[in-house]
Amino acid sequence: MRDDHEELLARNPALLSRCFWHLARKYGETAEGRAPGLPIFLVSAGLLFHRDTVDKIHRMNFDSRFLKVVAERPDLIGGLQSRVEGAFSASLSALQVGVTAGLFQRDGGKGFPAFRALGGVDLPVALRDASLAEMIAAARRLGAWFALEPFEVIQRQLVIEF
């Protein structure tokens, strides 16, 4: 994990967009093709911008869920509400960059917009970065976990309001 983890991401929406792509890809695989909604990206940014959370999540099994994270490390959800709120602008910028670059397709529907990952099994070679392996692993797990639970359940488990 890089020492400048949070600062690097906060200043570069392309990096967060790449993490979001992996999250959306795994979400779609797990949720039988459904695309994750905007709130999922916003909460994920609050989790991915936190070094200790990424360090914990990237090593967990895909079968685990948020409840296991909360039970094992309740300190990780402390301050999550403010991290989600603080990541709002960066999240929207990352999604905008992703849509513009052709990584995502914005889907309408009722409620919040959803964003579907486009492309093949992995990002184009020019967008891959091995130094982000832990964050990408965490983003994939978040995508799988978000797809397995209704968002309202996750909100209660993570003690956040939307």
Give an overview in words.
This protein is mainly α. Helix content is 57%, strand content 5%. It is built from nine helices and two strands, in the order αααααααββαα. The chain has a two-stranded antiparallel sheet with strand order 1-2. β1 (104-107) and β2 (114-117) form a beta hairpin. The longest helix has 18 residues, at 13-30. The radius of gyration is 14 Å and the shape is globular. The mean pLDDT is 85.
Largest sheet: 2 strands, antiparallel
Task: Name the helix and strand elements from N-terminus to C-terminus, one letter apiece.
Answer: HHHHHHHEEHH
Total strands: the figure is 2
Mean pLDDT: 85
Query: What would you report as the Rg, rounded to the nearest angstrom?
Result: 14 Å
First-residue to last-residue Cα separation: 30 Å
Helical coverage, percent range: 55-70%
What structural class do helix, strand and pairing data support? Answer: mainly alpha
Low-confidence stretches: none
